[in-house]
DUF882 domain-containing protein (Limnobacter profundi), 176 residues
Amino acid sequence: MNRRQFIAAASSISLTAHLDKLAWATQSPSYTLLDIQRGPDRFQIDFSTPEGYRTAAWMLRDIRANRVGVPNIEMLQLAAWAQIVLAEHHAYTVFEVTSGLRTHHTNSIIEGAARHSRHLPDESGQFYAMDIKPIGVNIDQLAKTLQYPAFGGVGVYRSHVHFDIRDYATQWRSKK
């Protein structure tokens, strides 16, 4: 199954049904371990398990709206892959999540948020973007790592890196 087919299939299922499809996340190569924190909460997550996936979804929730969404598996795998690559280059990092899912209301009150943000859920509740702050690693180093696979969007901001899953590669640097 290619990336486009997976996204099309995944967008039509709910979180509960999506948990049954997690076997896809364990196919080779396997990048399913994430070390993330948000506020005082820090978890080392294996999102290939239903419990781990639910924990990842909770960590990436819209805090303002108290809503949990369906994180895209490829997005989680890209984050896990980036942590492995950085660790292999002697730069272990925990990712501090600054934003995952955003409801339309939350997105509308965030200054500079894109109207058609990849943080917004699609009709099945799935979202395709994360904003993360690497702890112990330079933001530019993380951005270069995330740009390497050459798919999706990577935005560099003063305090964090945005990355998302999309059909084409793009990158930008915020002036703020």
